[in-house]
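User: Some background: our group keeps a shared notebook of sequences we're curious about, and every so often someone picks one and asks for a predicted structure to add to the entry. Today it's my turn. The entry only has the sequence so far, pasted here. Could you supply the structure so I can complete it?
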Amino acid sequence: MEEKNRKQIRKTGRKPKNDPAVNRYSINLNAEDNAKFLALFDQSGMKIMAHFITACIFQKTVKTVKIDMGAVEYHTGLTKFFGQFRGIATNYNQLVKLLNANFSEKKASAYLYKLEKQTAEMKELLLKVLILTDEFEKKYLNKE
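Assistant: Of course. Here's the predicted structure to add to the notebook entry:
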């Protein structure tokens, strides 16, 4: 009797669930069906396969996420490019201030003329990048 009371006092471990899942079902898939199933599971983005199967059986919405690595790489490169472009703009402003402060008007205007030519070339390059980006978005990123 004393032992039984002692066991009742010491309750350790996990609390029992109100509605435990005890029913188990098994299916067999051939290699082709298994490949399709695993592809769907990967596209769903779910971490637990049992949750994915349950969602499919009870027709819950299954989220599929497709990531186009080409688009991700293009976006990363474009972001780096525009970061460099902002850096050039900062340097441009500093250079113009230094030219006006340290050189005569004639010499500063000669350097500014050369700088304007380079700026015009950079503007053309930027316009080409924008056109290529628009083409890429229309061709590969179906925004609907």
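Suggested note for the entry: The longest helix spans residues 105-140. DSSP finds five helices and no strands in the chain.
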